[in-house]
Queue: 3 jobs
Job 1
Amino acid sequence: MPVIERVFGLAEDLLRTASPYGAERTLAELLASRFDRNEVREVLRAGDSLCVVPRPLRAGVPRIVLAGHLDTVPELTPNPVRRDGERLFGTGASDMKGALAVIVDALERAVREAPRHDLVGVLYAREEGPFEASGLPEILAVAGERVLDASLAILMEPTDGRIELGCMGAAQARVVFEGKRAHAARPWQGVNALHAAGPLLARLKSRAPREVVIGGLPWREVVSATTVAFRGALNVVPDRCELGLNLRFAPGRTRDDVVRELEELVAGEAEVAIESLWPAGCVVTGHPLVAELRAACGGAAVSSKQAWTDVGRLSELGVPAVNWGPGAVSQAHQAGEWIELRAIAEASRALGSWLWPE
């Protein structure tokens, strides 16, 4: 069977094995069994996440980690697995089972043929959910130096084939405005907590994205109100209002710096509590292995990642990492999700020409 057709068939098999967030076990077991049949050297497991080492790791040889998540968002509308013209349809096609097929095929090829650089695969559960619930830290703890000593990790999230450096950090804050309850017919007897939030909302509305250049690439720092909750009723002046603020910040900023910015934005008008802070990813401009990957892709475009990915988590552990994958960004989490077969083929060929040059 031609290599590319084999990868297409593998992508279809992965799509037919449903793996919505929190229900990845069937897919994890299918892949673990497959790797066992193909005699990979080592498969480590933590829950429903896998670390795959296809052959002994060599001293002094650069090490590449190919990483991707096993889970998809829930299928809310039917999207049967099928090929239609030049597209492969199915939930998770672009995010990211097309890429998983490329990863699995490369790991299995590494069993048969020694690659130019050593390969390690990390296939993890529960990415499509809260930061704290991700399966990636669990499998990294088990994998240890197999991953932490990597020369470069490639997170194969959908990027339309671009190489995206770094990633934005993300902070979620809860901002609480306190007021005084009163009857809506006599509001002067109270203090409206919703109205108290007005000046902050006005500042957010007028605040333009802040342009930052890092590694020669542009980043746009933004902050948005994303949730609101209040205590009251239709005929009651609310005495409490909570806003959820989401700040996206460029690489290189510290936690203290981010917290200080949020506090300055609120300007003492309310209480601020940081609920989560996801680290930004380092921008590995000039990394020689990134240059090799780009050459293998035929001079792929290089851009910044205007979103958060697990490149941030890997960077925090000292692992150089980039985002690169065949999935279509526009198709992630969409009803009727698809991926271009051409994109899968190009990613597979690029890895092949890079790691197994003729």
Job 2
Amino acid sequence: MEEEEYSSYPPVFRHIGGHSSAAHGGGGAILPSVDLPVVDFQDLRPAALGEICREWGIFRLVNHGIPPSLSRRLHDEAKRLISLPFELKQTRFAGDPVTYFFGTPAAASPSGESTGGLAEEFGAQSSAVARELFETLAEDLGLAGERRASSFSGAGKLLRLHRYPFSPLAGGHLGMDAHTDSSLLTLVSDGDVGGLQILHGGAWLAVDPLPGSLLVNLGDMMQAISDDQFKSVKHRVQASNGEERISICFFAFPPEDRPIRSSRYREFTYRDFKAKVQEDIQAVGFKVGLDRFRI
């Protein structure tokens, strides 16, 4: 590619695209691939879904009701916004809720204005799907009363557009490090470009795409609420050496100040959790997460 074709990348990454992998020994180890369990949203069964979440903590959701045309239009709009020159994005989105960012976990949701209302529509439909999934899992766990009602009612929501640039040197570069999500549930529209990897049974596995599906993974808050029955799956993203990956991620969080009570953790709120994560990132350079609250 010509240098100008990398103008949408942060300056520190632009040189990567102009070199061949042969010259730099690029390319990462090939991992075994996995087809994740597939769940039909129109046939949710608490026991079956609970079993998947105990074993995997992640699954593919089909027949979820979000129109393919909406996902496609939002992906197209995300690609258009992300493909703008880097310097223009910094200027254009300064102070805009789209919050163009690179390298920060503190991004806001894209605004309705910047995406023509598509983000708001996708977020609203994703929220409805996430609520139904949570209710199904709560039924499997036997959650009742205030504990069940307060975990999702008034929950926080965040929609992010993630871009993983392609490069001949992509093996080990320009992806996302291994982490768990802090959410209750995360819903991801990841199109047909692979790159996601999960830690399962002590080994890293490459997740195959399933166009039209939503990827659903459980986060730290769901693990805590479930008394560690469900697992917040550790995952990472490996950039492709031939195609850009753009994913649309919807995160559902518990209300910030509602107590989270568990037999495995001392009582805390999501606000407490966020504050401790930020402290750890500054002090030790990474998120420690739930272990900070474990009894």
Job 3
Amino acid sequence: MDKKETVSGTKNKKEFIGEVVSNKMDKTVVVVVKRLVQHPEYKKVVKRVTKLMADDKDNKCNIGDKVKVIETRPLSKLKRWKVVEILEQAKEKV
């Protein structure tokens, strides 16, 4: 086996794609992740929205950017996500 296949300490971390809705904090952005879920009793498809606070070390993200975030260790009381890459820049900077 190659060493790359047997690297210890790596886990499958959750990844989400979302949109930046706030970048007012230093090195932190708020990302909204939208998903569709089927209601357990009524079987109707319902929209669900989750807000995540993500680490943005270089303050590169702007409002409206589409970003990919990955789960990480707790960085503060509410920050448990890190911006991996900016997939799409916002059309207009706000």
